[in-house]
Specification:
Jelly Rolls; flat; 8 strands; single chain; mainly beta
Length: about 190
């Protein structure tokens, strides 16, 4: 039995040729023809220089246009919109609310000229809930305002109600800042 640890003669490799041959350049243009939207394939239709006339149509390209209809004179219009002449003003207020067995309080009434409002809970202990109605200002539909926090901007003209959901030992101060659009009379 031959010894597996014995050295055997190993074939030595020949040195690699150092001369390298480059590839032929690839032309960037099509060899032959190129049909627009079809490429170089014929798809069974040979291109012709002179297309065959379609039966039933005249050979000449005569285009008949309809007469141009004159447009009527423009009517002068004065553009009037709600924001034509107004100024913006704001109002801030805060009120003390006591826990009233889950009864919501109206913080802001419905006002057509109110643009936005931000409600702030100034209390450090009790959370408040706000909603668009007494029924919406509860745990199911009310937006929670944490302690010492404010709501996002409320872009509404509807009422805003506040609910103190937990029995509070002290009154809870809830404040708001509202922005209004006040129309400017034309005589100013």
């Amino acid at each position: 039995m031959p010894n597996p640890f014995a050295r055997r003669p190993v074939n030595t490799s020949q040195s690699a040729p150092t001369e390298r041959k480059g590839m032929d350049p690839v032309p960037e243009a099509y060899a032959g023809f190129n049909l627009p939207y079809r490429g170089v394939q014929m798809h069974g239709v040979e291109p012709t220089a002179d297309p065959v006339a379609t039966p039933g149509y005249p050979d000449k390209d005569v285009v008949v246009y309809e007469d141009e209809v004159p447009e009527p004179e423009p009517v002068p219009v004065r553009v009037v919109n709600r924001e034509a002449r107004f100024r913006r003003t704001w109002k801030a207020d805060s009120k003390l609310y006591a826990y009233n067995a889950g009864q919501a309080f109206q913080l802001l009434p419905r006002e057509e000229n109110r643009v936005k409002a931000v409600v702030t809970n100034f209390n450090t202990t009790y959370e408040a809930l706000i909603g668009a109605s007494e029924q919406m200002a509860d745990w199911l539909g009310g937006y929670p305002i944490g302690t010492r926090a404010s709501s996002p901007e409320l872009n509404t003209t509807e009422e805003i109600y506040v609910l103190i959901p937990t029995p509070a030992a002290v009154d809870v101060r809830i404040g708001y800042i509202a922005e209004y659009e006040v129309p400017i009379p034309d005589d100013e």
